Amino acid sequence: MPAADRQRPRSDFTDGQPPIRCDECRSALRSDRQQAVSFLLLDQLTIPVLSCDDHLERFTSICGLTTEATADLLHHRPAGGITCPGCRLAPSSSTQHMIPVQEGILVPMACPEHQSKIVQRFQTGLQTKQQLSVSLGTTTNGSL
Question: Which whole-number Å values give the CA distances from 23 to 19, 39, 87, in the listed order?
Fold first, then answer.
């Protein structure tokens, strides 16, 4: 195996998907995780997340389409901390899933149940965004 292949960080890959194209996301993954962690507040969920600022904002806005309240993003530890014991321990786990967000990624450092919920919320948000885009495109074209 060539030396370059052995030195490539595992964080450049997402389960067989193409490498992460966002330099800032790669940098966030390689940095001291405690310094780069933000917190997504969505309904009753408080999930530590890791990504660059741009992709954090995109992810948060898409997840915000799936809630009646607002989805908030904190760049500091939230008051009251993280209520789920599994999510509190998740940042020390070596198995974190990566969610593609356009050309970047987001890593929710949460327990498996909350990881599943946040992925589901994101996918629902993407579907909602697509439906809104199609509806606006149809309305605009139909009114001309």
Answer: 11, 21, 27
Sign of torsion over alpha carbons 17, 105, 58, 84: positive
Instruction: Show the tokens assigned to 22.
Output: 């966002």
Element spanning 106, H or E: strand 104-108
Whole-prediction pTM: 0.75
Tally of CB atoms within 10 A around 90: 21
d(CA 25, CA 107): 10
| Residue the block writes with tokens 């498996």 | 112
pLDDT in tens, 12-39: 344 455 578 899 998 888 876 556 789 9
CA 35 vs. chain centroid, Å, equals: 17
